DNA sequence: CAAACATATTAGTATTAGCTAATGTAACGA
DNA sequence: TCGTTACATTAGCTAATACTAATATGTTTG
């Protein structure tokens, strides 16, 4: 049985608790991007995106590497990438489930 | 490529964004429990736990069934259970990673 | 049917998080 | 070296969230 500290876990999950952050993750899931590329991608605000990137880094979900005046961000590793994929898979399944069986519940 | 609506996704992930909710999920991951069992388990407040259970149900993460005056909650299905496990796995890996390579970053 | 128990709901408050705008820092290029 | 570009940081405001206490609903049991 895997023993994970709940506070560490929450810190990690905090990264996934905001729409902008999740969109950033989707945006850089396949390949790394600079901050400004991400800003363009999401049609967002530079300061805002930068703050979320700092957050995602703190949560352990992404890593950044500086190259000259650019900073490239990418999701940390394949396992995190797999987790992101799995969330989509589970979500699809849950949606189907909810649609089929629980539509009488609101 | 899996296409998932971002707002639906956020609604789902919202369930994982709070410590109490994650603790509830951990508590009922293996077997269903009544509200009061969960309250005891977490040493929590009845109203609070009940609200979080409603939230988790709305997020699609858990389902409840009434049996007399008791309501039993359980995680929705095996796929959700797998996701919870995977989070722990990824987290372990990330922690190791952070400890080894990024300890110079705070 | 009344009391007791299990759970849900509501209202009010406190805490947290996210956003924007402004400013700071560092690297590059003319 | 000065201006420009890329990114980070800070401050202030607003909105969302979570908590507690009180009350309501529904079920069982005597």
UniProtKB/TrEMBL annotation, chains A, B:
Ranges for domain HTH arsR-type: 1-95
InterPro entries per UniProt: ArsR-like_HTH, HTH_ArsR_DNA-bd_dom, HTH_MetalResp_TranReg, WH-like_DNA-bd_sf, WH_DNA-bd_sf
Keyword terms, alphabetized: DNA-binding, Transcription, Transcription regulation
Keyword Cell membrane carried by entry: no
Keyword Transcription regulation carried by entry: yes
Single GO term (MF): DNA-binding transcription factor activity
Pfam families: HTH_5 (PF01022)
Protein name: Metalloregulator ArsR/SmtB family transcription factor
Organism listed in the record: Oceanobacillus jordanicus
């Amino acid at each position: 049985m895997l023993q994970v500290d709940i506070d560490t876990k929450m810190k990690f999950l905090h990264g996934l608790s905001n729409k902008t952050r999740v969109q950033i993750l989707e945006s850089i899931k396949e390949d790394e991007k600079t901050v400004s590329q991400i800003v363009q991608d999401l049609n967002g605000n530079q300061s805002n995106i930068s703050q979320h990137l700092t957050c995602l880094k703190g949560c352990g979900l992404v890593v950044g590497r500086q190259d000259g005046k650019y900073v490239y961000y990418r999701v940390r590793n394949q396992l995190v990438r797999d987790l992101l994929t799995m969330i989509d898979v589970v979500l699809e399944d849950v949606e189907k489930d909810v649609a089929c069986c629980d539509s009488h519940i609101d």
